Amino acid sequence: MKYKDKINRLVFEGSAEEFQNWLLAQPKMEQVAIMRDLKELTLVYSETTNMKIPKDVPIMENFDKKIDTFEDSILNVRLAEDFRAKVEEAMENQLRKMATADYGVREHIISCILNDEPKAAEMRTLAQMMIALEKKENFHDPEKWKGLPEDL
Length: 152
What we know:
The chain is an all-alpha fold. It has 2 domains: 4-81; 101-145, no CATH class. The protein contains 7 helices and no strands. It is rod-shaped. The mean pLDDT is 88.
């Protein structure tokens, strides 16, 4: 139990507010470990004092499930963030390839926008992304996008 001493000090010498403030100041995954340690300490305390905390305190009944659910939610957010980063990287790489490709792609995008073709809105968004990437990568040449509306 990594947090045994800190939990004992805050529970027996501090206040519920101090414990809560300390807990919430910790990284999310550490909060999970702390709550698991708190449960273990509660069970040990319950045994040494002959109290029936696990049976008499309703929150203890589903404590493990709640902590597992909290941990799963943290991990799901991390997975989603990792996935988003990979998608953004792949998209940026693809845009970089498109931006440095032959003028034919750029000319097609410009033509779709100017002729208000069925995918003109998507092409406008694509052009904006390509231009932004060109600027970010310091190879933007406004001449390559000549003819586009000013509001792009």
